From TrEMBL:
GO biological process annotation, one example: maturation of SSU-rRNA from tricistronic rRNA transcript (SSU-rRNA, 5.8S rRNA, LSU-rRNA)
Protein name per UniProt: Protein FAF1
Sequence ranges of Acidic residues compositional bias: 51-67, 146-158
Record region (Disordered): 1-20, 30-158, 340-360
Origin: domain of life: Eukaryota
InterPro entries assigned: Ribosomal_biogenesis_FAF1-like
Biased composition regions of type Basic residues, renumbered to the chain: 348-360
Entry's Gene Ontology cellular component terms: nucleolus
Organism: Vanderwaltozyma polyspora (strain ATCC 22028 / DSM 70294 / BCRC 21397 / CBS 2163 / NBRC 10782 / NRRL Y-8283 / UCD 57-17) (Kluyveromyces polysporus)
Compositionally biased intervals (Low complexity): 68-88
């Protein structure tokens, strides 16, 4: 009967012992894989608990030795049971140790602690000023972002200004490139200012500038720029005024220049070259135009033909319109109605104004 009464106590003690053994096995497996907690800088509280449990076990053993023989039999039975459990636990522990060794041999495991650094960073004067004024570092970051955006906008404006300047210089060079190409003729034995200019521009480091242009090309380019500015200001008549010369000489120059243009266009058509369109009545600008500066003597077109073309201009169909459109609608006068109906003005005037005799 005594053994049957002590069964719950025996079960509780065996459960506690099994739990303690399992915890010990887990601790050993953890230390085999990662190392002890003391090596990592932490306190191992399990040792204190183990010491307390060992002291309690010793006191309990002393009390049990003082008890009767039935207690000794119970202890023997419990020891037998515990020894059987310990054998199985030892086997499990050996398996865990083998697995941990295999894991360690497979490769090292590195643990990094990314904590805040202890190095003191001296705040800048701007940050100190912001902190004294009572503003947080968020304001400083926002202000810095605003400054960055402003700098980016300034850089964009500078880039746009530079691109615009480059575009203007490119357009100017394209307008004046015909002068350089025509004045740099291969037939001329002496080197002209245009040829020297083009030779100096062969080097990539030298850009097209006003100081680089020399000789007759420089004079022509400056004259072209002045004429262009004066045309913008509205002095076309003064600019287009031709040099005084005999009319027959001028007519001969015009006819010869027209033949040169026709020859140039025919050669381009035979070679399959598509030329740009020219305004109706104007002379096409060819190499001879710039080389001889012939526009100063014959102009850009024949004035008489321009006048005839403008006077005999084809207008639209002549339509007899009636009324006038306003925002309130179409307004038709009585005269227009009479004109459409074919009423005679005289008869209408006579009917509308009858003669009355005055009596005395």
């Amino acid at each position: 009967m005594s053994s049957s009464i002590n069964d719950p106590k025996e079960n509780s003690e065996t459960d506690e012992a099994a739990y303690a053994k399992m915890m010990e096995m887990q601790r050993k497996a953890f230390e085999a894989q990662f190392g002890s907690l003391e090596d990592m800088g932490f306190e191992d509280k399990t040792k204190e608990l183990n010491e307390e449990s060992e002291s309690e076990d010793e006191s309990e053993q002393e009390q049990e030795e003082e008890q009767s023989g039935s207690g000794s039999e119970y202890e023997n039975g419990s020891d037998d049971q515990f020894s059987g459990f310990s054998d199985s636990s030892d086997n499990e522990q050996n398996d865990i140790n083998k697995k941990s060794k295999n894991a360690v041999e497979s490769g090292p495991k590195v643990i990094k602690f990314n904590g805040p650094s202890d190095i003191f960073v001296v705040p800048s004067k701007k940050e100190q000023k912001m902190l004294r004024s009572g503003k947080t570092l968020k304001h400083t970051t926002s202000n810095s972002n605003n400054d960055d955006e402003q700098n980016d906008s300034d850089e964009d404006e500078n880039l746009e200004r530079e691109n615009l300047q480059n575009d203007l210089e490119l357009q100017q060079f394209l307008r004046e490139s015909h002068l350089l190409a025509s004045l740099n003729s291969a037939n001329s034995k002496s080197e002209s200012g245009a040829s020297l200019t083009l030779q100096s521009m062969n080097n990539d480091s030298i850009a097209y500038q006003d100081d680089v242009v020399m000789g007759k090309a420089r004079a022509r380019t400056l004259e072209m720029r002045l004429n262009r500015l004066s045309k913008i200001n509205g002095h076309d008549k003064k600019i287009n005024r031709l040099e005084k010369m005999p009319i027959q000489t001028r007519k001969g120059m015009v006819n010869k220049h027209i033949k040169r243009i026709e020859k140039y266009e025919q050669e381009a058509a035979d070679g399959g070259i598509v030329l740009s369109k020219v305004k109706k009545g104007q002379f096409r600008k060819i190499e001879h135009t710039y080389k001889r500066d012939i526009e100063r003597r014959i102009g850009t077109s024949i004035k008489k033909k321009d006048e005839i073309r403008n006077t005999k201009r084809k207008r639209g169909l002549k339509v007899n319109s009636i009324g006038r459109s306003t925002r309130n609608g179409l307004v038709i006068s009585s005269q227009e109605i009479a004109r459409v109906n074919g009423v005679d003005k005289r008869s209408s005037k006579g009917r509308s104004k009858p003669h009355h005799r005055h009596r005395r």
